Structure formats: C-alpha cells, structure tokens
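Request: How about a record?
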Amino acid sequence: MHAANLINAGIVLLTVVAIESGGLFLLKVMGGRQRANDFQKSFYRAGHAHAGVLVILGLVTLLLVDGSGADGPVMWAPTLVLSAAILMPAGFFLSAIGTDPKKPNRFVVLLFVGSAALAAGMLLGGIGLIMEGVAQLS
C-alpha cells in the first residue's frame, strides 16, 4: 500500500473514536439525559449512521483503488468518499443544533456538498476500476 494511503487509513481508523463518542451522545439523547426534539433526534441518528457507513465505504474504496494498480484521477476516489464521511455527518449534526429547532439551518448545505463528493468518488472509483480491469484483460 502507498505511504499516503497508509496514513489516510490510520487517520480514518482514529475517527472511529469520534464516531463512538457520537454514539454515546446519541444514547444520552435517546435516553432522555440530553434534551432534543424529534427533528434533532432523527438528524442525530442519521448523522451517526452515515458516519459509520461512509468511513467503512471509504476504507473499502481506498483498499480497492490502491490494490488495483490504477493511477491517475481514480486515486482521488477514496479522498472524495472519505470527505463525504466528514461532510455529511457534520451536515446532519450542525444543521440540527440550537434550542428546539423545527427545520435544518444553513449547515444543511454540507449534506449536499457531501453527497456530491460521495457521488463523484463512487463514479470516479467505479469507472476507474472498470477501466483498469479492462486494461488488465488486454
């Protein structure tokens, strides 16, 4: 594995501690020890779930791209997916902060930016891996 990918993977594994802390916060919210309205509860749950799933997807993307031998633009796919793993949960949590909000605030834009990064990373990774596979068949 490339040195940069090893560093990225190590950093991502450390973010799991933050996701775990978010889970503890979510337990406080769901147990009534932390005040939150229904809107906030749903956004907190979504943020926590997206964080966990996207970190795993980012690591899998990193392993696939690194192991494929591909180079060029496809090498950006893991970075884009891992960026989504930060942006989307941040969008869920930050857009629900405040005292009894009824709808998301302006931080909801992070959800759309993260979604765009995720889509770009998946397209870039998928197309790049297919092209590398086809090239290896020749």
Notes: Residues 37 and 91 are 17 Å apart (CA to CA). Residues 38-68 form the longest helix (31 residues). Helices lie at 3-30, 38-68, 77-94, 109-137. DSSP finds four helices and no strands in the chain.
